[in-house]
């Protein structure tokens, strides 16, 4: 059976999930007079180099057009993409202000990490964000995209290294901006939570002039400004456990590391109290400074009474002073201000030649807050761990209850204030190109320059050497700190008064103790590319198409270390730095062969040469079979690769923090060691790293059983080897690559707590991910005057997310809270579902969007022999059944167009005000999972207006 261009286009649009396909199906058929044949317009599609007459390819593509974006109620493209079912563990949310890559947002298709998802802008690369996620994973910041300039977003759900090169292992997100616009549109919106915070204001102006056909030019400019206010944990005090570190009301113990700050947990083990816990030099028991009956005290401090500092519920059996520092100082959402500009100029020089230029500018400033520094934390630098567990109040320090004898101190420096990080990000992308026809060839060549520069300023982080000297001014400590000019300028004998006596400290003392720290990062891409395509011959199913191309680019990246971290001198801040550059050259080609009216074959091959990582050759094959007009089978096979990033094979290193159980101390009966506790991980780059390599298979079908119904089902598998990772922290602990603090021992034979794990980046693992995608589109027309109803469902299910280490040990993370080494313990849900239902009639459109996350076992991987990762005070697995329940939110949006020029719109996110399930394990948020961010914020309202001149 022969197929019309219209019928093939409909199936292609459905296969991509585009709402435009549904709109076409709703149009009634009309008899038309024969018309002279016209040239069939061809479109560019993500995942192929060859322009086509239809959008249908062998690969599965999700298409989100402007209507989809507006129906979502999201104010940024980043927010919309991170709600998609295909996004999974490893994405980077803008809400995580405490991470290495705070201030940015990244997507992680198939849960393979943001570094394995390639983001394109109009089909070409952008410079990655200057700060690597977890100090390792380089990714593109989705915030650079101006929402009003977006034409559509295409998400290719299988490997595409044969087309685009490195980083496309899990798929490609191609954001296609407007290229031809006339008129002027002004849009403004304002959002606020039910708690009257988190204000989100957006204003934009889009202008276009010129018709390419009539005027031979088009000029387009889009300017967008957005400002989003912070949301504090403390402002969600009525939302049960949200934002709380002290979980005693839900059955947890203050003795655990997850409990309130300041608990005294055991002999020789005490938390950092807001008024100070000190260690008895004789018994090694910690005692709170406010305890007037402290054993062995030579001085007492009535002003240090816990009640003078906090109204937080007490009850620590060890006598500590409890506060919930996470609730007081941490944020659910950081403050961010952003400006976005996109401009495009297109000139039709001749009927065959078109020149174009694009300019993207983006600037953002984000500010995040976290708890005040605790004095005793371990930090790492390339030379090893630096342990501050032995910080002491000197024998003559006036606030020492054991005056006359040095005493260890555990103190939360609330007098210094919460730690603050301010990040300025500047992005620029400049593109100039020419496209046109030369004989039978269609050519497109462009020169691209893209850069992201990040400036980071941190304040209220303690200088280790100055802290030691101000608390215990021994000759050795004073000599070490005197190299610091700010300390040297202080009066001789200066001491840091703590807690109730902090008011006597001078501004100069705080300036020496916790100065502002700044560092910069920069990433840059310069690229020249050329693509040529043509039709070679006529095959039974259509023309044989071919595309050939090549590109050369220069990539550089540099992150300066935060001053002082290169020697482990900043309390609570690990070392992260890298520097490097490389040249990349590539040649590629693709063939599209419709060998039969029902069969289309495609093949692509790309060769890349990296000056630092060698050569890579990657093929891709596709087939599409359409036995009848309403049914098609499709499949692809592809190989892919990811070249090591500068952070992984350059010059520098990383010292970060994670959580781990200490099996040795746990087996000795040290209960606190049986629960995950913070540790430092010190990782060195490895110039001998090989690229990661992958193989992906996608098999699916598209079925249009009825006029307004479309179903797409795809089964997929991705296998990745030579995976570049830090070694698993538990594996490194088992191998003994650790550092301990012997002075923290609690009993004979106790080696003391782990302070750091020593590792490097290695090609150590392989991953196998297998799943299924189901998409259903349905449109209902109930008759004249009733409007039309559209339903869309996207469901992604993971059968397996298996990671195998170099020693052969394997861990399946599907449906569990892992992989904690790469996801901030966000977890890997087996099921994610997006369901949309909209009704449109005349000037009105109302839509509901349902987002579902499946339940998670609170284990680090399937069948973990260690059992549940968290426990209640009575020893029971936590949460109940060792499972995080599933979480579902419902969003409502509306649009009203009283005239052709005016549009009023609004949304209510999380309309039922669902509270996110309790999650005690993740360290990307406090007591809730970052995947459930909407359940932490609560109901959120947005209203806006658009006017077109």
UniProtKB/TrEMBL annotation:
InterPro entries: Beta-barrel_TonB, Beta-barrel_TonB_sf, Plug_dom, Plug_dom_sf, TonB-dep_rcpt-like. Residues 54-172 form the TonB-dependent receptor plug domain. Keywords: Cell outer membrane, Membrane, Receptor, Signal, TonB box, Transmembrane, Transmembrane beta strand, Transport. Residues 538-911 form the TonB-dependent receptor-like beta-barrel domain. It is a multi-pass membrane protein. It is found in: Cell outer membrane. The keyword Hydrolase does not apply. Residues 1-31 form the signal peptide. It comes from the Bacteria. Belongs to the TonB-dependent receptor family. This is TonB-dependent receptor. It comes from Massilia rubra.
């Amino acid at each position: 059976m022969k197929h019309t261009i219209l019928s093939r286009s409909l199936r292609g649009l459905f296969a991509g999930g585009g709402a435009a396909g549904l709109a076409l199906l709703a149009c009634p058929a009309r008899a038309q007079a024969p018309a002279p044949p016209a040239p069939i317009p061809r479109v560019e599609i993500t995942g192929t180099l060859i322009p086509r007459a239809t959008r249908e390819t062998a690969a599965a593509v999700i298409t989100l057009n402007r209507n989809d974006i507006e129906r979502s109620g999201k104010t940024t493209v980043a927010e919309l993409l991170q709600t998609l079912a295909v996004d999974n563990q490893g994405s980077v949310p803008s809400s995580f202000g405490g991470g290495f890559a705070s201030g940015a947002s990244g997507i992680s298709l198939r849960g393979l990490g943001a570094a394995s998802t390639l983001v394109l802008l109009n089909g070409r690369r952008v410079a990655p964000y200057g700060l690597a996620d977890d100090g390792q994973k380089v990714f593109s910041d989705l915030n650079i995209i101006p929402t009003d300039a977006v034409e559509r977003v295409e998400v290719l759900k299988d490997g595409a290294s044969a087309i685009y090169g490195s980083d496309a292992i899990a798929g490609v997100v191609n954001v296609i901006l407007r290229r031809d616009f006339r008129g002027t549109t002004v849009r403004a919106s304002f959002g606020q939570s039910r708690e009257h915070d988190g204000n989100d204001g957006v204003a934009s102006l889009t202008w276009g002039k010129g018709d390419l056909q009539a005027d031979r030019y088009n000029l387009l400019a889009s300017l967008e400004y957005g400002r989003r206010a912070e949301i504090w944990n403390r402002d969600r005090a009525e939302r049960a456990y949200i934002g709380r570190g002290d979980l005693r009301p839900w059955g947890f113990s203050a003795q655990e590391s997850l409990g309130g700050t300041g608990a005294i947990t055991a002999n020789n083990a005490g938390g950092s109290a807001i008024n100070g816990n000190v260690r008895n030099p004789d018994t090694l028991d910690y005692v709170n400074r406010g305890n007037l009956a402290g054993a062995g005290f030579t001085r007492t401090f009535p002003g240090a009474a816990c009640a003078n500092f906090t109204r937080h519920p007490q009850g620590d059996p060890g006598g500590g002073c409890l506060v919930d520092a996470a609730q007081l100082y941490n944020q659910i959402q950081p403050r961010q201000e952003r400006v976005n500009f996109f401009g495009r100029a297109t000139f039709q020089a001749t009927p065959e030649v078109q020149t174009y230029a694009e300019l993207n500018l983006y600037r953002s400033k984000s500010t995040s807050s976290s708890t005040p520094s605790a004095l005793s934390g371990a930090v790492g630098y390339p030379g090893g761990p630096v342990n501050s567990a032995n910080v002491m109040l000197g024998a003559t320090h006036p606030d020492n209850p054991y005056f006359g004898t040095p005493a260890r101190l555990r103190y939360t420096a609330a007098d210094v204030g919460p730690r603050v990080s301010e990040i300025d990000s500047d992005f620029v992308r400049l593109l100039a190109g020419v496209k046109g026809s030369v004989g039978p060839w269609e050519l497109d060549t462009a020169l691209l320059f893209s850069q992201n520069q990040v400036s980071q300023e941190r304040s209220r982080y303690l200088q280790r050497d100055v802290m030691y000297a101000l608390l215990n001014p021994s000759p050795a400590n004073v000599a070490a700190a005197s190299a610091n000019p700010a300390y040297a300028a202080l009066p001789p004998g200066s001491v840091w008064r703590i807690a109730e006596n902090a008011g006597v400290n001078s501004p100069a003392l705080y300036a020496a103790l916790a100065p502002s720290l700044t560092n910069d990062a920069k990433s840059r891409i310069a690229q020249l590319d050329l693509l040529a395509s043509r039709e070679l011959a006529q095959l039974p199913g259509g023309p044989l198409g071919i595309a050939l191309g090549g590109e050369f680019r220069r990539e550089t990246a540099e992150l300066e270390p935060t001053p002082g971290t290169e020697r482990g001198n900043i309390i609570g801040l690990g070392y992260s730095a890298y520097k490097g550059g490389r040249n990349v050259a590539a040649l590629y080609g693709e063939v599209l062969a419709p060998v039969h009216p029902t069969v289309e074959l495609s093949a692509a091959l790309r060769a890349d040469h990296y000056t630092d990582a060698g050569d890579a050759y990657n093929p891709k094959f596709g087939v599409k079979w359409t036995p009848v007009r309403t049914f098609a089978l499709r499949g692809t096979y592809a190989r892919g690769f990811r070249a090591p990033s500068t952070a992984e094979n350059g010059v520098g290193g990383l010292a970060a923090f994670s959580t781990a159980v200490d099996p040795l101390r746990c087996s000795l009966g040290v209960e606190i060691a049986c629960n995950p506790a913070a540790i430092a991980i010190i990782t060195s780059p490895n110039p001998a790293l090989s690229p990661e390599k992958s193989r992906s298979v996608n098999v699916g079908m598209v079925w249009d059983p009825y006029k307004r119904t479309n179903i797409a089902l795809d089964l997929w598998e991705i296998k990745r080897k030579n995976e570049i990772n830090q070694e698993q922290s538990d594996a490194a602990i088992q191998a003994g690559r650790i550092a301990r603090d012997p002075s923290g021992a609690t009993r004979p034979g106790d080696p003391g707590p782990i302070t750091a794990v020593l590792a490097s980046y290695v090609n150590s693992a392989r991953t196998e991910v297998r799943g299924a995608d189901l998409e259903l589109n349905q449109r209902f027309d109930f008759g004249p005057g009733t409007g039309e109803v559209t339903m869309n469902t996207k469901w992604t299910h993971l059968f397996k997310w298996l990671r195998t280490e170099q020693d052969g040990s394997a861990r399946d993370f599907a449906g569990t809270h892992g992989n904690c080494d790469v996801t901030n313990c966000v977890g890997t849900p087996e099921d994610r579902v997006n369901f949309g239902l909209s009704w449109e009639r005349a000037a009105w459109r109302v839509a509901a969007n349902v987002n579902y996350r499946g339940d998670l076992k609170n284990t680090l991987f399937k069948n973990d022999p260690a059992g549940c990762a968290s426990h209640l005070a009575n020893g029971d697995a936590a949460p109940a059944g060792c499972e995080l329940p599933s979480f579902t939110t419902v969003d409502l949006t509306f649009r009203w167009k009283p005239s052709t020029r005016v549009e009023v719109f609004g949304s209510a996110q999380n309309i039922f005000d669902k509270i996110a399930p309790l999650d005690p394990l993740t360290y990307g948020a406090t007591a809730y999972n970052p995947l459930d961010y909407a359940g932490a914020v609560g109901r959120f309202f947005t209203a806006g207006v658009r006017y077109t001149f």
